[in-house]
Design a protein that fits this description.
about 350 residues; alpha+beta; six-stranded mixed β-sheet; about 25% strand; eight-stranded mixed β-sheet; Fructose-1,6-Bisphosphatase, Chain A, domain 1
């Protein structure tokens, strides 16, 4: 999974990032997402694999491309290549891309067949934390308790801890509790995959992600943090009254029925990263669209562009930053700047 396939998967994500970056700052989030989806799918279908989308653009097959269950890759035509599960978000943080804000990334996770949890398009309560706190913090505990545990595990005063929370009405009480406990809150509007990955880097200045976000993105975050050895837990949220926004399904009861139809018999189960990304060979790939504190966005120069991609693997236990120069017009000057 880390040889030729790994290199091609990097190119898949790079293609999505470049395509959506052309709409950065133009206020067209749907257009940025559509461009990323088309580019990702086109490149993905040139890869020698038998891929199946388990997290994609539409749970109910109403998306025209990269929908749940779609088969991708050359192997479906000739029977060659490995069978893999794929979770994608071609433009994670469409608003961030549309308004040229930090943190938009193209992301993808892969594992052997059956190695990624097929999450319904619901919401998920999430807790991400650094390696030192893995298995010690717990999503069932209060934010105050987890901050105390984090402080002990990291040997950092609570006053110096920073927690990322999405700026949503449903998080008002959580934000108050974190601040009352003495920690800092960094609010984000979108992009909680990138936010969670901060917890995997010891020098990011981010010590936890707390709160409720989209469940599909939770699986992608879990894959990345599993590969990084960090902590991630998720619990599906199926009650519209809790998230205060629309969900698939008209009611709590309808959502429970939807989960049962997908084989989820315990709707309140708390999942670990190893359960959401259960494969023995898991890989996460993310290419910056706009820059964040751990990844550069797409940069253009005459005749080409430069991308930066994070690749983390549970198989090799590595985190690699891949710096790629894309040369489209021979003879143009290539800018080799840091």
């Amino acid at each position: 999974m880390e040889s030729k396939l790994g290199l091609e998967i990097i190119e898949v994500v790079e293609a999505a990032a470049i395509a959506s970056s052309r709409l950065t700052g133009k206020g067209d989030k749907d257009g940025a997402d559509e461009a990323a989806v088309e580019a990702m799918r086109e490149r993905m279908n040139k890869v020698a694999m038998r891929g199946r989308i388990v997290i994609g653009e539409g749970e109910r097959d109403d998306a025209p491309m990269l929908f749940i269950g779609e088969e991708v890759g050359l192997g479906h035509k000739d029977g060659t290549g490995p069978e893999i599960d794929i979770a994608v978000d071609p433009c994670e943080g469409t608003n961030l891309c549309a308004y040229s804000q930090a943190g938009a990334i193209a992301v993808l996770a892969i594992a052997e067949k059956g190695g990624l949890f097929a999450a319904p398009d619901f919401y998920m309560k999430k807790l991400a934390a650094p390696q030192a706190a893995k298995g010690k913090v717990d999503i069932s505990k209060s934010a105050t308790e987890n901050l105390q545990i984090l402080s002990q595990c990291l040997d950092i005063p609570i006053n110096d801890l920073t927690v990322i929370v999405m700026k949503r009405e449903r998080h008002n009480d959580l934000i108050k509790e974190i601040r009352a406990a003495g920690a800092r809150v960094q609010l984000i509007g979108d992009g909680d995959v990138g936010a969670a990955i901060n917890c995997g880097f010891s020098d990011s200045g981010i010590h936890a992600l707390m709160g409720i976000g989209a469940a599909p993105e939770g699986v992608i975050s879990a894959a990345a943090l599993k590969c990084m050895g960090a902590h991630f837990q998720g619990q599906l949220i199926y009650d519209p009254a809790i998230v205060k926004t629309g969900l698939i399904g008209e009611s709590k009861e309808a959502n429970i029925a939807r989960m049962l139809s997908m084989g989820i018999t315990d709707p309140d189960k708390i999942y670990t990263a190893d359960e959401l990304a259960s494969g023995d060979k898991v890989m996460f790939v993310g290419t910056g669209i706009t820059s964040c504190n751990w990844l550069q966005g797409v940069r253009y120069f005459p005749g080409g562009a430069r991308t930066q991609t994070l690749v983390v693997s549970s198989e090799s236990k590595t985190a690699r930053f891949v710096d790629t120069i894309h040369m489209w017009e021979p003879g143009k000057t290539i800018q080799l700047v840091n």
